[in-house]
């Protein structure tokens, strides 16, 4: 994924200023999907405008600009979203690496790690359940629905990892009793 596609997606939902886009990254995208600050967002908006993928629709006080996605930008976003994600060969997922290396710990320590995984995923799932409940019945399209499909995706991931952690704890306990 790239910052340009994230910006195109946000602007496809509704036109926004660089400041509003920065807030979107601070509040939700940066926490769950993609981190970006104003020092990368503003230059990327300029590059997108140069490529004809976004345009400035209004200018406000102190040089504030509102951007909107162009038809070419919508087509670029559509093309990117319809393609399967590319595997770059460089996978860096610290959580998965930790799970690979759990067997290097004593079983009791591994259970502590897994208990933390179970607790943190339960808490994160509860938070996303609240977000989903607050938007229950709303459309999944447009500004009011922005992020709701992603929130449901995240919720289901947290639930799956939580269940896996509980299962893994049980497996380690069973191995300890057998060994």
Word description of this protein:
- 16% of the residues are buried.
- The protein has helices spanning 3-13, 18-32, 38-50, 71-82, 94-100, 107-134, 142-145, 148-178; strands spanning 16-17, 54-59, 65-69.
- α1 crosses α4 (71-82), α2 crosses α3 and α6 (107-134) runs antiparallel to α8.
- The chain is elongated and about 70 Å long.
- A three-stranded antiparallel sheet has the order 1-3-2.
- The protein is built from eight helices and three strands.
- It is mainly α and 179 residues long.
- A hairpin with a 5-residue loop joins β2 (54-59) and β3 (65-69).
Q: Helical content, roughly? A: 55-70%
Biggest sheet strand line-up: 1-3-2
Question: What is the radius of gyration?
Answer: 21 Å
Q: Mind summarizing the main beta sheet?
A: 3 strands, antiparallel
Uncertain segments are none
Quantity of strands, as a count: 3
Q: SSE order, as H and E?
A: HEHHEEHHHHH
* Beta-strand percent range: 5-15%
Mean pLDDT: 87
Provide the structure class. mainly alpha
Task: Output the number of helix runs.
Answer: 8
Shape field? elongated
Brief summary of the model shown:
By secondary structure, this protein is mainly alpha-helical. Helix content is 68%, strand content 7%. Strands 1-3-2 form a 3-stranded antiparallel beta sheet.
């Amino acid at each position: 994924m790239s910052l340009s596609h994230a910006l195109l997606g946000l602007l496809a939902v509704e036109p926004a200023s660089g400041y509003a886009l920065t807030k979107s990254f601070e509040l939700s995208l940066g926490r769950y999907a993609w981190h970006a600050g104003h020092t990368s967002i503003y230059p990327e908006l300029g590059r997108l405008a140069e490529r004809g993928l976004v345009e400035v629709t209004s200018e406000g006080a102190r040089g504030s600009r509102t951007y909107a996605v162009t038809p070419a930008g919508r087509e670029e976003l559509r093309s990117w979203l319809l393609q399967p994600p590319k595997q770059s060969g460089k996978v860096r997922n610290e959580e998965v690496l930790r799970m690979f290396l759990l067997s290097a710990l004593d079983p009791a320590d591994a259970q502590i790690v897994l208990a933390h995984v179970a607790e943190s995923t339960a808490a994160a799932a509860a938070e996303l359940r609240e977000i989903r409940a607050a938007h229950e019945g709303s459309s999944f399209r447009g500004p009011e629905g922005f992020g709701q499909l992603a929130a449901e995706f995240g919720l289901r991931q947290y639930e799956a990892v939580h269940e896996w952690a509980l299962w893994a704890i049980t497996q380690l306990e069973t191995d300890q009793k057998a060994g």
